[in-house]
Amino acid sequence: MSQGVWTQGVWGKLGGAGLGLAAGGPLGALIGAVAGHFLLDREGSLLGPTPREVVFTTGLVALAAKMAKSDGVVTPSEVAAFADIVQVPQDERAGVERLFDLAKRTTSGFEGYARQVAEAFRDEPALLEDVLDGLFHIAKADGAIHESEARYLAEVAAIFGFDDARFAAVTARHVRLADDPYEVLGAARDLTDAELKARYRALVSENHPDRAIARGLPPAAVAIATRRLAAINAAYDRIAAERHLS
What we know:
The protein is an all-alpha fold. The protein has helices at residues 8-15, 25-34, 52-71, 76-85, 93-105, 110-120, 125-139, 147-159, 164-172, 181-185, 193-207, 209-214, 219-243. The chain has 13 helices and no strands.
């Protein structure tokens, strides 16, 4: 794994002395394996506050690793796609690979990781969508989303609390099922031009990477938001051309 959007700050928080983490659960176990010198409480949880970028990025790494295990193979294109999102400085490459391998080999199921991420960001569903978008980006990197990957993504989405319509909208950004740009926008075909424009503008506002930056979201979330906005813009441009919108 090489360059992408894993920052030295995040990795430093996993390995830097003096910072306690309270992730607990399966993510806490992974973090503890990488930063083994941290103090644990009696239940085995790491002590202190957990920065959300650590939870976000560690959760994305863990879920990507479990997806790779469900597919049975990690292709070079999937590794490259992972590196598009999660930046790994050269001198920290071995540590991130260790985290990925630990998550892949652990007996804990992906459901535990997904539930912990869902709980951590239950008040920020957009961040859960970021995680799912990141997993889709990795899964499709080899040119196809395989049946096992599709099942995995649907199960993660269900744990995140996404209904069928929301999951279909995320899927449509990555997979050309019916090649329907309306699915990408989560918009009905019978919307008026004004309603469609309003829907598009709301999506741009919600998903603009500048908003993610202003909210202090993890760099991986900003990278995912940038790709998502591109898909939204492309879908609207297609519809606008069909409807001859100015």
